[in-house]
Amino acid sequence: MRRILPQPAGETARVSTCPCGLPASYDACCGRYHRDGGAPTAEALMRSRYSAFVVGDAAYLHATWDPDTRPRRVTVDPGTRWTRLEVLDRTGGGLFESAGTVGFRAHHDGGVVAEDSRFRRVAGRWVYVGPA
């Protein structure tokens, strides 16, 4: 069971178990990427972006969006309750690659968001480009 702790003003929510679905604590998993922005693979970036939606970290979503495709402003709807992430497939996106895709389904209280997402490295860091 995931537990979201009360959120101090101006900070993202704290989560005890990582929302991305991997068997680790939030701090040891996606939380470390939220702190430094450096996910090692495209899949890790996609999982950490999902977790950013869960904890309300719009700044991380903006920072990890490809500068060529990102919107001027990124917001997170605090009324959406994200419940589960399914990673369906991936191509490329590994430690020694420069591009990749990740297919996923992100479940929330109002339905499901499904996407095959494109990722690339910019200045040595993975960024989200957009739908494939």
Automatic annotation (TrEMBL):
Organism: Pseudonocardia hydrocarbonoxydans
Domain (YchJ-like middle NTF2-like): residue spans on this chain: 41-129
Protein name: UPF0225 protein
Database matches in Pfam families: YchJ_M-like
